[in-house]
Structure prediction request, 464 residues.
Amino acid sequence: MKPRDMLVGRCGWSSAPGLCHTISVPGLEFRARVVIGYPPAQIGRRQARLCQSHEFTRTKNRNREMTDFRAIDDLDVAGRTVLVRGDINVPVKDGKVTDATRIVRLAPTLTELAQKGAKVVVLSHFGRPKGGPDTINSLRQVLPELEAAVGAKVAFGDDCIGPRAKIAIGKLAAGSIILLENLRFHAGEEKNDPAFAKALAELGDIYVNDAFSCAHRAHASTEALARLLPSAAGRLMQAELVALGRALEKPERPVAAVVGGAKISTKLDLLGNLVRRVDKLVLGGGMANTFLFAQGVSVGKSLCESNMADQARAIALIAKEAGCTLILPVDAVIAREFKAGAANEVVPVSALPDDAMMLDIGPASIAVIVEQLKACKTVVWNGPLGAFEIAPFDGGTNAVAQAVGALTRDGVVLSVAGGGDTVAALGHAGVVDDFSYVSTAGGAFLEWLEGKDLPGVAALGRRG
Ligand code: ATP
Prediction:
């Protein structure tokens, strides 16, 4: 990564004068040279609050608008063969689909294209086949669910490229749908192999990508293929990109990000991107403990990555430079056991007993956060604010999620959330339907929050 711009900043960690720090915060490429400092021996953890001048560089970020892609409305599909990359990698047990959400969410794109007179060819991966076709990973088993979702008969092709695919598509009438066999039965798919992409492109006239959840992977069906045919986003991809665009690309300000979860080490890129894009960053969950520790707070037996303290301070510095207010918990629900119903009490974060752990944010923190969010127009959320799976440590996540849900219902904020645990936490709080948009895309959503270019989105056709 090449440094793009140079800033002069101040930060709150200590070191010897003239010492050159390299603090690894991916996405920020943080190199600091201490201009004024103090010998480390004189600086206790609790006193690590001295400001020193530093020079640092930061790296490039996603700079292309995600919302200028072409959509189905920009295509003339009547009588054309349209290849639709969907994500129907659904969970299956004993040959039966146990959660058809992805299929149901893909159906509107397929139905719309069929109604417009296209021959619709559905491409997807399924499972993790190793080196060729097998029955366990055959897409044939999801056919009944797909037919139920689109309310029509769907043909099946035993291969996704070559003569068998061509013959099956050749038999298709305009306005009909065919599902082709698992893309990952061919090694070329995951290798983004141009020859495999060319074989796919030979099957159709137009390419529609409706698999945002796969857009972070540069695979042949998500990346190379998009460059070989006229391409556009499907309805599901479109909804996701519009929602994400409104949340971070061109948001109504002020924008707040609520970030929780267990560890900062898994979210360095995400935090590094968000502090430069949002006006307020609310931190909760285990990762807030690390930020508190980095400020010299004694965190007892709480989950804390003490080896990440430098990174936490670096992120706090970038936030300050960027004018982003960091909001950390001021009190916590603490316990001595990590189990449901464990004896617990609320204490200020500065008064944590050495043998206790912070398992949730406390009522004063909830009040501060809700007050701050009320003044915002956009809220982006990833990660629970406490150990939400075990009562009563779900209280903070529930209360803040319900407040954001109510603010959204009242038209005060636009709210976008995503991530596996986050969707579960919002479901637990009963507010999934209250949020403006909840992304189930997992990895792709997180990479978008990290500010990365998503290959499957970058390759899509652009307007103008
Ligand atoms: P996703 O990105 O999929 O939404 P996430 O980033 O929220 O997930 P994790 O980083 O794994 O996922 O964090 C979620 C886990 O963190 C939950 O299991 C939750 O119990 C745990 N957790 C949150 N706060 C605390 C805390 N204060 N102490 C211990 N564990 C915590």
Remarks:
- The two ends are 30 Å apart (CA to CA).
